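Q: Joint fold for the lines below.
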Amino acid sequence: MKQNSRQPLVSMTGICKSFPGVVANDCVDLELYSGEVLALLGENGAGKSTLMNILCGLYRPDAGEISVRGQRVHIGGPRDAQELGIGMVHQNFKLVDTMTVLENIILGMKNVGFVPDMKKIREKVLELSETYSLKVDPDASVWQLSVGEQQRVEILKLLFRNAEILILDEPTAVLTPQESNELNKVVHRMRSEGKSAIFITHKMEEVMTFSDRVMVLRKGKVVAGVNTASTSPKELARLMVGREVLFEIEKKPFAPGKPILEMQNVCALDDRGLPALKDVSIQIREGEILGIAGVAGNGQRELAEVITGLRKATSGSVKISGKDLTNAKPIQVINAGVSHIPQDRSQVGAVGDLSVASNLAMKEYRKKPLSVAGFLFPKQITLLAKRLIESFNIATPSPETRVKFLSGGNVQKTILAREITACKNLLIAVYPSRGLDVGATESVRRQLVAQREEGRGVLFISEDIDELEQVADTIAVMCDGTIMAVLPAGTADEETLGLLMAGVRPSNLESGATHESGV
Amino acid sequence: MDLITSILTITVRAGTSLVLATIGEILTERSGILNLGIEGMMLMGAVTSFAVSYYTHNLVLALLVAAGVGMVLALIHAFLCVTMRANQVVSGLSITLFGTGFASFLGQRLGPESNNFRLVGLKGAKFTPVIIPGLSDIPILGALFQQDIITYTVYVLIFVSWFFLFKTRPGLWLRSVGEDPKTADAMGIDVIKTKYRYTLIGGMLIALGGAHLSLSYTPGWAENLTGGRGWIVVALVIFSMWNPARSIWGALLFGGINAIQFRLQAGGTNIPASFLNMAPYIGTIVFLVVITWWEELSKKVGGPASLSSSYMREDK
Amino acid sequence: MKVVFEKRKNVSTTAQVLVPAISFVVSLVLSGIMLSIFGTNPFQTFAAMFKGAFGSINGFSETLVKTIPLLLTGLGVSLAFRLKFWNIGAEGQLTLGGVAAAAVALFMKDFVLGPSLLILAILAGCIAGALWAGIPGLLKTRLNVDETLTTLMLNYVAILFSEYLYYGPWRDPHGYGFPGSAPFVENAWLPRILGRAHVGLYIGLALAIILWIILRRTRWGFEISVIGASPKAAHYLGMPVERNIMLTVLLSGALCGLAGAGEVTGISHRLQQGLSIGYGYTAIIIAWMSQLNPLAIPFVSLVMAGILVGGDQVQLMMGLPSAVGSVMQGLILFPMLAGSLFSEYRLKWIPADKGPSCAKGEA
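A: Joint structure:
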């Protein structure tokens, strides 16, 4: 760890925190100096958010001490943290949709008076807006604001409370590249005004761009703390994952067959009514894994939903094995042999309140031997469940255990077991290894490849470029609802891919490039 | 002119208890708790305050007792719903079941021996109208100034509660708890305390609404004195769009129907009354449909978003 | 030292059985205390209640009379609750069921002969109840309007409508001033089995079993369980969510309508005041207490009916207010509601100051 003669602004020592079944923080030490930007880097589940939630008072540590400005403190709740000048902008904004920006900014503050002077408050907010270039309409209701604007409100909230230490959780995850630049400006302003910041991230670019120092967490433990200037993305990646990133998956040579999925010029809207898919055309053939790369939130989820009948396509066509299934009902798509591992594991893919056996039976129950003439045979369900639990290695006390008591990896295995068993020709996997530990992740990837080996088509949506390079045959990069390019795996370098993901088509690629068979 | 004035007078008198209970339930629902125990609380408020007024002739004491009783019942509901995270609908209905039964029980047991221990048919102290000189002579609107003290207090309460909810800091906090308890908690607001506090205040006001019936409007005690008003209040809260200032309209509407019914009953039939009585319920449904369907409107005047769901910190 | 609630790893079946049992005992204790305060011997009272409800043929038959509508509406309500459709409108659906059955009995007696009149009346009751539940059902599935409030509001519309009918156009001209319709002809009378208790009891018990079979042993029942747990998941799995919700809501209303039809054709033989004494609301409580299990509902209905009848009897025999029954019912619920938490959570003691106890590794 870096030696420093200055006293740290914030010092966390020996922090331990566990939740049922998982150790989130295992004896973590952290130091933050004033006027610096510290990045907390780590994979999903490394313990970064937990640590920061402890610092800002939402969780209480099982063990450990915190000191701020040299004094030992006890942060019992968000208010204590606020008084110490600590504030956090979460990934899920803590804003009340139906209230205005001003109301949200002063929410929870005791010292605004019994009848708050809204005029004075508005003036101060506009002032802060100006100083930190955080432009937003103070009287707008939050539900009317864009995501970037909402983030600005969150930051204003902290500044209004004279926060000195600002914690930002995955701040660029929801921003466009333009908005990320704006944020960068804001962070510089904050630094020059003497504030300190901690960034939680799992993205290398953020670390290199924004931070002065970086601390790497892995599986709840600190593995390194270095100056950003003296490290490199490669080294950080290695520290983050803990071993050489490469792992080989055995694959047969690429020999695709007939087209299974043909999407032509599909347009669709997202939940807000804004265009999510703009003229998207892709193709998947038998024995092919098509990977969809790109920052989450660029239409990937909507793409999967349009194919599976969960979202309306406003134009274009979707054909499965030659049959036109554009805007078909989900049951029709399922009967056509398509399986879907959805993004939302806990609410959509699996039903937490029902047993593992029930979840495993949720596609097979329509057929023999599980049901005949409308009647269900529980014994058959249990038999099926036992078979699948064993072959997919699902860790569960019993088939009757409710799924909500299983770990994330095992919930995913349950979904996989069901979907793969039911899959006849096309498997759609949306961020299937997100949040899973290394073992579960590898098992997921192997299953996807196995489907390919059996001659099925796989649509593999992932945020992890390395994963896609390993597993997919072809990679399509999505940005802002369009397919930027379709390339055979292994042909594009990181820089090209990064640019494509950021919405830039490099000059060495023709626009609307289509992939060629072979390679 | 005179007829309208007299109808208005009765309407306002009838509406007072409704407004009290409505404002109380608005505050409770604004904290995210649905209280379907209103009918039971009103009846308990009515019977206890009447009993106190009969024996002591002390109206202030009677009101205090009603308020206390309301708070006790509300405390049960709050404890079950907030701390024990029970089903709010079932809890509220239980309070109604219990409150209705217990009020009936008390009504048949708290009376003096001379009346067979019953409270029915007795005369206790009551609130009499206090005519405000000058103002009460205004044509039509003068009716507003020929009411009893409680009604006058309610006029003030309407304004005070509106101001509290929309212009003060604690009102802002209350609204946030009902809209988004997770966010409110993250902002350092004690969600649990807030829910308890406003459920109790709500219960107090609701019981006082019942007390107004037995101490002024009827007055006296009879089986099923409230006649289902508790359920009307549920509708009124929606009608008012959870805004105390708007509670007047609904209460006037219902109170007005009550008043007109008196006139009609003299005519000998109940026929039109039934349909008139239906109108507010149907109106509420229509209203619910409109505000749910029109999203923008629902964000402006819809109910607190978290109504009826449980909440606990660190629920991963 | 702090006490917090921590989520259990497994749902505790012990708690699920213990809680209702303990609640019943607690409610007896609380009721006993209340009775003592008012100068009555609680043990005598409970004994009298029990004897009144179950100790004689007459008493038992009256208990059955109240059990039937509670059983039917309880089944109806529990069905809707499985889909998290909060049908608070059982009271109104029951009332309209009675109205529809009365309509058939009164106005089709000259066109339909023999037992068909009765059957038609019952069917009409079911359909009326179904439709009345279908309105808020449609509003929920199509427009996402909260069903708790719409079903509640419709109760009053139904009750007022029924009042209008038997005070007004349907009023019996020979009724001696007592508000109600003319009595039905005998072929619209539901046969009785014991005292005033009618065949509806058998129908109700049969339906309870059938419902259980449907929910546990059919494809449709399986889909219901998935939709109830997560409509999003059900939709993703290709299950017809909206259709199933509507179907279930209609069935729920039909069962409540059936209860109403049973009351008018089996008990009162006319449409009059007092068709329902809050059965629809008690049904919600029964459904909840039975944890939505159709096999438990008949038993719980019997107990609740017994408490009500016992209360009536106690009024006659001991001069106590008949409201004792409703009070007791309320008192059972409070401990049950409180206890329902324990099947999902358990108490955990967190000892006070925990200093830095973890070993520090490398810097």
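Q: Anything notable?
A: Confidence is low (pLDDT under 50) at residues 510-519 of chain A. The longest strand of chain A covers residues 22-32.
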